[in-house]
Design a protein that fits this description.
The chain is α/β, with parallel strands linked by helices and about 800 residues long. It has a domain of about 180 residues: Helix Hairpins. It is about 70% helix and about 10% strand. The strands form 3 sheets. The protein has a 6-stranded antiparallel β-sheet, with helices on one face. A 5-stranded parallel β-sheet has the order 8-12-13-3-14.
């Protein structure tokens, strides 16, 4: 994997930035805060969608970028003779992630997660492995020798990915512990051989008792069957008696019902005869008053004629009154139309004036918005400069706290005579750059604020004037609608007046006399009373035929019921029924029921006893089955324990084998480089299987802590490079062609720096690109190529 090009937009401190990566030993040089480390943070972000230190996405965006601007990173690299491009973006207020991945200018995949998956598949390294293999800082190098043994071992194992083996061993041990505990617990709950024998003997005793009990139940069941047979015989005899008794009772009820019906018919027939006599008398009265109906009809027709005349008369009077009201309305509408037409003369000029005002308001609002955007940009610039001042003041305070004899917090080099120079440089940066910029921005800001206030005042006056004018136009438009309605109403009045005149002429020929109408109504009311009485007589006389028919039917029913009653009495006398025999048989049936219930209760009790014994047998069998089940589970636990124990032993052997291969490999690479750097003074660096470091001096092995700071720094560097190379081989990533080191020169003097550079020259054949980050400007001449920030 060879880096080709990196482009940044609104990424951290970079607003717009683009960089071409060269081959060879490349120095990336710049002052503290110039964005050197940001370049490799951007590379990590492009590949895996996250920063090296897992910063939140809100901290990625440049402070001077507005809400709508996106964060964009584009990385181009070469891998296996193909050109790949990754594009990652954060868009919108919520910084939504977008990503694309191209191979030889063809889109391969989209989506943040899918792009990350494709990268891992391609280079065969996840984010942690990538960082541990290809990146190293001064702090990380120093920790190789400065940490205590356990912490150093843990760190190296993590770099090499060997901590996964430790986790597997821990997992296996936890399972072995849990299985031992479970086996002990399961064993404590199993039945002893004596308990199992005791349970089997008890089952045998229960089965013998159960057989005896079942024989007794069978004997009682046979006796119960005999009692049930007798019950059936008695029940049939009782049913015959009850059927005869029911038949006799039914006939007796029918005789009583028929006798009651005959008596009721006689009473009803007498009442109907009396009603028929009264009806005949009313028939004579009806014949004498029949002429009233004819008189009633004539009077009714005359009244209808008078009411029709009255209706036409009232309609004519109403039309005459309505005609007067229409004349008055016509006059009022003419006057109102004239007034509205005079008021609407000024409407077109007012509408033209309103249109011009709206255009002026729109132009002014646009100008005001532009000025507000410029104001906001100036405020953001002031805030950015103030943030830089605050950060610089924090650095000054840190340096003052450390003092002259302390090391630089960035590069770990002792400050000494550079102490005052560094402080003066930082103070000068604040005074000559940041504060000066703030004064310029604040002056521009004040000018914009004044212009915005003037423009806002002018806009408010325009809006007020437009509002007043709009109210006048709205009022005149309402009057315009009223004018249209008034004209339409005037036309309607003219039409209605013409129609009323025509109807009045038609109604002139009809004459109505109220006195004559009232006299007819009085005469009609007198005749009406007699007429309604005649109608009631007619209704009553219609019942004559119905009465005669009912009387005839009642006589027939009486004759039929009398004959039926005679037959029922004869049949009743023929039925033979002995009440005494019935009760004797019923008593015997009840005694037999009692005997049956006694047998049922006895059998039930025996079956309860039988069920109880079966329950005890089942309970014992369940205990024995559960014991067998627990024995099976125990055996499974024992087998699992054996498996986990074998795996733990195998993993331990595997761990030892890996360590025995990794440690010598690191020793070999580190020794070769260290020998070259020290010009043969130190021939060998040994890395033990437990990752303890030793340096050979004159053929003797010494711990790394014995040597001076510069020698230890060099040893740390070659060890870290050896670890990176070994880790790359372990991950199968032989095509990764670059390394990057951040501030690795530390406290080295010029000769040591040259030695470090020589060390990197020795591995150029294995890595096409080696990037060294440093804030020390004086060393830039030592590199083949330099990227100065």
């Amino acid at each position: 994997m060879i880096l080709s090009r990196l482009s940044l937009k609104n990424f951290k401190k970079y607003k717009e930035f683009s960089l071409e990566f060269n081959d060879g030993l490349v120095g990336i040089i710049g002052k503290n805060g110039s964005g050197k480390s940001t370049i490799f943070e951007a590379i990590c972000f492009a590949l895996y969608g996250k920063l090296k230190n897992n910063d939140s996405k809100e901290l990625i965006k440049n402070v001077n970028a507005n809400e709508k601007e996106e964060v964009k990173v584009e990385l181009e690299f070469e891998f296996d003779e193909n050109i790949y491009i990754i594009q990652r973006e954060f868009r919108g207020k919520n910084l939504v992630a977008y990503a694309k991945f191209f191979k030889n200018n063809e889109l391969v995949v989209t989506g943040a997660k899918d792009v990350t998956t494709s990268i891992i598949t391609l280079i065969k390294m996840n984010r942690d492995a990538f960082l541990h293999t290809l990146f190293a800082s001064q702090k990380e190098l120093t920790s190789l020798s400065s940490l205590d043994n356990e912490q150093r071992k843990k760190m190296i194992r993590k770099l090499l990915g060997l901590e996964k083996i430790d986790l597997i061993e821990k997992f296996l041990q936890e399972n072995i512990t849990d299985l031992n505990r479970d086996i002990k617990s399961f064993s404590s709950f199993l039945l002893s051989i004596e308990q199992i024998d005791e349970y089997n003997k008890l089952i045998k005793i229960h089965n013998e008792v159960l057989k005896t009990l079942q024989d007794k139940i069978l004997f009682r069941q046979k006796e119960l069957d005999k009692v049930r047979q007798k019950e059936e015989t008695l029940k049939k005899q009782l049913e015959i008696f009850e059927k005869i008794k029911e038949q006799k009772n039914s006939l007796d009820s029918k005789i009583k019902v028929n006798s009651s019906k005959i008596q009721s018919i006689k009473v009803s027939n007498t009442k109907l005869q009396e009603e028929l006599t009264i009806l005949n008398n009313k028939k004579i009265e009806y014949e004498k008053s029949k002429n009233i109906k004819t008189l009633y009809i004539k009077l009714q027709e005359k009244i209808k004629e008078q009411e029709a005349l009255k209706e036409k008369y009232l309609k004519k009077e109403g039309l005459i009154k309505q005609q007067e009201e229409l004349r008055h309305s016509y006059k009022n509408q003419k006057e109102q139309i004239k007034t509205l037409e005079d008021e609407l003369i000024f409407l077109p000029s007012l509408e033209k004036e309103e249109k011009q005002l709206k255009q002026d308001i729109e132009i002014t609002q646009k100008q005001l918005q532009d000025k507000k955007i410029s104001e906001r940009d100036l405020r953001d610039k002031i805030a950015g400069e103030q943030k830089i001042i605050n950060d610089t003041n924090e650095k000054i305070q840190t340096i003052k706290t450390l003092g002259k004899n302390s090391k630089c917090p960035t590069c770990t080099r002792e400050l000494l005579e550079d102490y005052d120079k560094v402080l003066d440089s930082l103070y000068s940066q604040i005074e000559t750059n940041n504060k000066k910029n703030i004064l310029v921005f604040e002056k521009q800001l004040n000018e914009y604020v004044s212009k915005i206030q003037l423009k806002q005042t002018y806009l408010d006056s325009l809006i007020l004037k437009e509002k007043e004018l709009h109210s006048k136009i709205t009022l005149l438009n309402d009057k315009k609608k009223a004018l249209i309605n008034s004209k339409a109403y005037l036309s309607d009045i003219e039409l209605r007046g013409k129609e009323n005149n025509e109807q009045i002429e038609l109604l002139e020929k009809y004459i109505y006399k109220e006195q004559e109408h009232n006299k007819l109504k009085q005469e009609f009311e007198e005749v009406k009373i007699k007429y309604e009485y005649i109608l009631s007589l007619e209704v009553q006389l219609q019942r004559e035929e119905s009465l005669l028919k009912s009387i005839s039917e009642y006589k027939k029913q009486e004759e039929i019921l009398a004959l039926e009653l005679v037959k029922q009495k004869e049949e009743y006398e023929k039925i033979s029924y002995n009440e005494k025999e019935y009760f004797a048989l019923k008593e015997e049936y009840q005694k037999n029921l009692k005997t049956k219930e006694d047998f049922l209760e006895l059998i039930h009790n025996k079956k309860l006893e039988e069920s109880k014994i079966k329950g005890e047998i089942n309970s014992i069998n369940k205990k024995l089955e559960e014991n067998e089940f627990q024995k099976t589970k125990l055996q499974q636990k024992i087998e699992d324990l054996n498996d986990y124990t074998k795996l733990k032993i195998t993993m331990g052997e595997f761990k030892t084998k890996i360590n025995s291969k990794v440690a010598p490999k690191i020793s070999q690479i580190a020794s070769l480089m260290y020998s070259k750097i020290t010009k043969g003074k130190y021939q060998l660096i040994e890395v033990s299987n437990d990752f303890d470091f030793y340096i050979y001096d004159d053929g003797k092995k010494y711990p790394i802590e014995r040597f001076s700071g510069g020698e230890v720094d060099l040893a740390n560097l070659v060890l870290r490079i050896a670890i990176s190379k070994t880790l790359g081989e372990l991950n199968g990533t032989s095509q990764i062609g670059f390394l990057a080191f951040d501030e690795v020169f530390g406290s080295q003097d010029e000769s040591r720096r040259l030695e470090i550079l020589e060390a990197f020259h020795t591995i150029k054949e294995q890595y096409r690109q080696i990037f060294l980050i440093s804030h020390e400007m004086e060393i830039k001449e030592m590199f083949e190529k330099v990227i100065e920030l």
